[in-house]
Amino acid sequence: MSFGPPPAGFRPEALPAWTPPTEIERTLFEAKSRNDWAAYFDTLARSLLYFEIRRDRSDADPDKVHPVFAHDPRVAGGRVWAVYTEGLLPAPEPHRVFDRKSLGWFSRGWEPTDPPWIVVNPGSPCEAFLPSAPPYSGAWAQHAERLGVPSCGPGLRTLQVGGPLQGAVAHGLACGSLLFVRCGHPWNALAYHGHGYPKERRLLREWWGVTSREEWQVQQRDLLDPDGANPVWEFALNLRRTIARDFGGHVDTAYWRDAVALVLRARAGGETVITPDGVTTRPTVPEAETEARIKGVQHLVGRITRYEARFRADGILDENRFVTSVDAWNFGRASGMARWGLGARYCSLPEAESAVIAAGRAAARSYKSWQDFAAGYILGRCLHFDDEEFGTWYTDMVDVHRILMSDPGSPWLTVPFR
Questions:
Q1: Residue 304 in contact with residue 203, Cβ under 8 Å?
Q2: Helix 327-343 and helix 197-208: axis angle, to 10°?
Q3: pLDDT of 242-294, one tens digit each?
Q4: How many CB atoms lie within 10 A of CB 390?
Q5: Rounded to an integer, what distance in angstroms lies between the CA atom of residue 183 and that of residue 200?
Q6: Cα-flanking dihedrals φ and ψ of residue 79, to 5°?
Q7: Where are the domains positioned within the chain?
Q8: pLDDT tens for residues 356-394?
Q9: How far apart are CA 28 and CA 7, in angstroms?
C-alpha cells in the first residue's frame, strides 16, 4: 500500500534496537520495520491518539478542539500535526496539555488550513509521517472505518518504559489498578494524561465536584484519611472483627446482629468513653432514634453477608474469609485521584507521586494482601453504588479482579503487598 512520497528532506534511518513502552508502540515499530503500512494503520485505528492543545482556550471553551501545531524542519514549510500513542506521551507539564481522538476523527476533521503532515510519535523509532490531506488521508481513514471506534474496555496494560514496576510508587499505583485496568489504561502510568485534559476536568467536575486545585486537595486529603470511610460500614465490620478475635474465628450472622443491638443500646444510654480529648460522657439518644439505627445497621449486616457469599462464589473471597474493612474503597480511589488531579493539572507530578505513595502505605497498614485489599475495595464500591443488584458496578469488578489475580504481568502478582 502506498501513501505517496515522504516529505521533502526526510531521510529514513536504520531502525535501532529499542524497548517499546507498550504493545501499541511495539506493533507500530514492527510494522514499520517490515514496511507493512496496512498493519501500521490498523494499529493506529485501534488506538486513541493524543495531541497538544491550547490550555487557555480549552479552559474557556472545552467543547471545541484547540490544537497546537508543531514545527519539523524535515518537511517543506515545517508545519506538522504531532500525535502520540499513550506510551510515548511527554510527561505532564503545567501549561502543556493534550486531548485525544481516534484516527477516524483526524480524517473527518481535516481542513485546508491544517498542516499537510501528521507525524506519529515524533523522534521515536516508530515515527511515521502521514499526509493529512485527501486523497491520502482517505486511504488510511479506511482502516478507521473498518475497525470502528477504539475499545476502552478492561485489559491489563503495563508501561515497560516510563512507569515504575517495583517499589513504593508501583505499590501505590497498584492500589488503583482495579480502576485503571477496568478502563484499559496502563496500571503503572504515573505521568497520567488519561482521557485527555478536557475530559479529565469534566469527569472530576461531574463525579467529584472538583473544579480547582483547592477542591482536589480536599478530596485527596479526605480519601487518605484513615477515618474517612463510611463510619456505619466500619462500625459493623469492626464489631464483627472484634467478635471474631475474642471468640476464635467464624461469627454467626444472627449473633452479629444481636451484638449490633447490644452495642448501640449501650451507647445510647450515655456511656462514658475515652476520646482523644479525654474522658467524656456521650449524651443519651432517644429510644426511637436508637431503634432506627439498630434496624439500619442490622440491615447493613445482611447486605454485607450476602455480598460476601457472592464474593466467595466468584473467587473474590476464599471460603471462611470475610471482609475486614472497606478502607480500601478510599485508598484505591486516592491512588486514582492523584492521577486524575494530574491529568486535570490540579497538581504537579511530584505531588501526584507523593499521594500515590501515601495511598500504598495506608493500604499496607490496613490489609495483609492484595486479595484482602481487593475484597474491601469491591465491597465498598458495591455498598455505595450497587444496592444488591449485582449489576455492572459489581460484574465489572469481578472481571478486572480475575485479570489482576491471574495475568502473569499483573502487579498483584509481581509487586509485594508489603
A1: no
A2: 140
A3: 999 888 778 899 999 999 999 999 888 765 555 565 555 666 777 788 889 99
A4: 15
A5: 13
A6: -85, 125
A7: 23-147, 168-227+327-414, 231-303
A8: 999 999 999 999 999 999 999 999 999 999 989 999 999
A9: 20
